[in-house]
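Help wanted!
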Amino acid sequence: MSSELIHRNQTRDQSENQIEDSPSSPRLENSHPKTRNMLNRAPFLFIGIAIATLFFHYLPSRSTLPQNLNLDDSSLIETDLALPTRRVLLEERQERRQRVPLSVGLKSKKNKRVLVTGGAGFVGSHLVDRLIERGDNVIVIDNYFTGRKENVIHHIGNPNFELIRHDVVEPILLEVDQIYHLACPASPVHYKFNPTNVVGTLNMLGLAKRVGARFLLTSTSEVYGDPLQHPQAETYWGNVNPIGVRSCYDEGKRVAETLAMDYHRGAGIEVRIARIFNTYGPRMCLDDGRVVSNFVAQALRKDPLTVYGDGKQTRSFQYVSDLVEGLMRLMEGEHVGPFNLGNPGEFTMLELAQVVQETIDPNAKIEFRPNTEDDPHKRKPDISKAKELLGWQPSVSLRQGLPLMVSDFRLRLFGDSKINGDKGASAE
Ligand SMILES: NC(=O)c1ccc[n+]([C@@H]2O[C@H](COP(=O)([O-])OP(=O)(O)OC[C@H]3O[C@@H](n4cnc5c(N)ncnc54)[C@H](O)[C@@H]3O)[C@@H](O)[C@H]2O)c1
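Answered by r_m:
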């Protein structure tokens, strides 16, 4: 050991002597030993500076971080997964931004760019009206399976409005800030033919992830199935038959909610979930098997009102403008949900038939038919959560809303031959 040390010292002395003796370093020869030491270390110093410069150059600066990610938020620090997960998310989002460049100035615009899937349908078209009225740029994608161009035709030509024929079971790339995902046939007559819920929702969540958009899912009270709890609060997990004729819709929406929450937790997507209860109003599909549109169309055509079962099963009916208000509050608010959006006023089918008789034709007959499989016995939303956190509650009663729907149906059935019930033509 000691001989090794002696050997090293000797080697160093020799090399120092070599430098001192070297003819190519005349200045070193005369300089102070401290200065000589510093000059010897200078190359290492330069290399260090170069590495530090490179490091700080490539470190993400605060201005390139996603706008909706608050780094000062103490909750990020508190969570176990906060730092590594956020870091990965930051990198993913930066990568995304590089892959999908947003239009210049888009994020700084006051008005949002909003995608409404299923925007040519009943609820979607009313939502589009409100968004356009607010000054947003609205893109509608719809495959017209149950929707109609006529529902949004009044916006065509407006530079803030775009209509794209597209099936959400196929991916699509659009630059948007918010996605209202409504595309899905909502009536029993139609949904049995179309597995839109799962694949369509997956694609739209993928889009939300890619462009960093906020995503709102229009789920349904059907997630409660034939409920064993009444009224239904969001905490109730439901009683759904997984293999029945309605399951593709009920279970499909349940899967859609699961996917939304997984994207929220796993990929940091901002999601909002609305559980919509029976909604009615102008532009509903004629003859689509939904009870309000059925009764209204039957009464106007002087057909008997068909009541399934004994007519004592209950439902709650919300006017479409109330729903649209709830959806927009949910999207703009800070709460993920799920939120029940429905009118807590509860009617039996027979009571509803009576209101339709009063509104349209007091002489309309009622015809009883055998009930359909898995028809829920009771349905009534508990909307305390929406009242408290969204400051929302419906304001239009059935007796106020029904006449508005009747005049629209009357026009479509008897008034204007172009729109008159020709589903094949209007689906174009
Ligand atoms: N209206 C209600 O009472 C009610 C209740 C609960 C939930 N919801 C939900 O609200 C949403 C809208 O319902 P609605 O009553 O307006 O129904 P709707 O049938 O009038 O509208 C659905 C729209 O989606 C379109 N669509 C269907 N499949 C599509 C696909 N694969 N790709 C692109 N577009 C497609 C249809 O053409 C239609 O325009 C649905 O998701 C529905 O499940 C509605």
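OP: Thanks! One thing I noticed: The mean pLDDT is 79.
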